[in-house]
Amino acid sequence: MKAWLQNGRFETCLALAIVIVTLVVFIRFQDDAELQAPPAVTSQPQVETGVETF
Q1: How many Å apart are CA 31 and CA 49, to the nearest integer?
Q2: All residues at 6 or more sequence positions from 35 whose CB lies less than 8 Å from its CB, including other chains
């Protein structure tokens, strides 16, 4: 484990994980913004089904 830390792989994996999580959260927030941006006509089916409440 110490050799793994000294090689810098842990820092690289940690940085990659942070970048991936940030990208996923950013993309999800962008999708939510795009879903809320159109008029209420497109969001009515989602409200009726109740499946996409989250």
Answers
A1: 19
A2: 43, 46
Q: How many CB atoms lie within 10 A of CB 43?
A: 14
Query: Distance between CA atoms of 32 and 16, rounded to whole angstroms?
Result: 24
Encoded tokens for 46: 């989602």
| 10-27 pLDDT per residue, tens | 888 899 999 999 999 998
pTM equals 0.45
Amino acid at 12: T
For the chain, the straight-line distance linking the first and the last C-alpha, in angstroms and rounded, comes to 40
Distance, in Å, from the CA atom of 20 to the CA atom of 24, rounded to the nearest integer, reads: 6
